[in-house]
Amino acid sequence: MKLNKIFIVFISMLLISLIIGCSNGIKNVGDKIVVEKQINGENKYEFYNEIKDSKDVQNAKNILNRIKWENAQVNMVHPAEYKFHFEDTKSKTSGEVYALWISPNKDKIELVIDSKIKYVQLDKEKSKELFKIITGKNLGEAYENKN
Known about the structure:
The protein is an alpha+beta fold. The chain contains 4 helices and 7 strands. The chain has helices at 2-22, 54-66, 124-135, 141-144, and strands at residues 32-38, 45-51, 70-71, 82-87, 98-102, 109-113, 118-121. It has a 7-stranded antiparallel β-sheet with strand order 2-1-4-5-6-7-3. Strand 5 and strand 6 form a beta hairpin. The longest helix is centred in the N-terminal third of the chain and has 21 residues, at 2-22.
């Protein structure tokens, strides 16, 4: 009996540490995504889109929650093409603001969370998927129709 208690405590501690260790410390709460687009190549943004489809919102959260973020302060050459955040419709509270850049080869996206000093460049697959959710466009189309 005593051995069972020790085993249960050990397993519980292992699971708790696993859950805490896998968390990236970024909370994406909200039932919609609000997207802003850069205007005139400046560090100014205007409302672009609002994603309310629960499946798209959850897919974006899943992608962002599985990312291995780097702790890095980055200085990009130009302002982000898009900024987005999750927002709760009822309480009007919003989470972290993600700044999104399109890579020079137009096949990947880079994300920064300034308030957390986090940076990541997504692989091609995740880039295409997240970009499609956020903008409604395919990643290659972004520059073809820019400005």
